[in-house]
Amino acid sequence: MYKLLLLAALLGCALAAPINDDTITKFLSNADTDGTYGYSVEQASGIAFGEQGQGGVGARGSYSYISPEGIPVQVTYEADENGFRPQSELLPTPPPIPEAILQSIRFIQEHPTPEELADRAVRAQQI
């Protein structure tokens, strides 16, 4: 009888404990002998991140959280021999190239210098 009462008291305490924002609500992990791996973690605060890939070859993953302004942030990424490439609507993008610069580039391509013509001839022979 006392054991049942003790078990009920412990269960009640466990259920009454508050969940912190740092509390992990989901954790999945997998690692295989061929170097492939994957993991996924979620916290009570809304932070989530995960990745899968092969060690030394490449990886794909994502992470998400709620910004201090209350905006949901979602970032996906890929990392391999071409570098780290994140994608998100919230990442800054460069401004468009001004038309005058584009015209200058076209002019340079259409009117090569004698040195550029000589360089092109050498490169054509190397191929």
Automatic annotation (TrEMBL):
<keyword id="KW-0193">Cuticle</keyword>
<dbReference type="GO" id="GO:0062129">
    <property type="term" value="C:chitin-based extracellular matrix"/>
</dbReference>
<dbReference type="GO" id="GO:0008010">
    <property type="term" value="F:structural constituent of chitin-based larval cuticle"/>
</dbReference>
<dbReference type="Pfam" id="PF00379">
    <property type="entry name" value="Chitin_bind_4"/>
</dbReference>
<feature type="signal peptide">
    <location>
        <begin position="1"/>
        <end position="16"/>
    </location>
</feature>
<dbReference type="InterPro" id="IPR031311">
    <property type="entry name" value="CHIT_BIND_RR_consensus"/>
</dbReference>
<keyword id="KW-0732">Signal</keyword>
<protein>
    <submittedName>
        <fullName>Pupal cuticle protein Edg-78E</fullName>
    </submittedName>
</protein>
<dbReference type="InterPro" id="IPR050468">
    <property type="entry name" value="Cuticle_Struct_Prot"/>
</dbReference>
<dbReference type="InterPro" id="IPR000618">
    <property type="entry name" value="Insect_cuticle"/>
</dbReference>
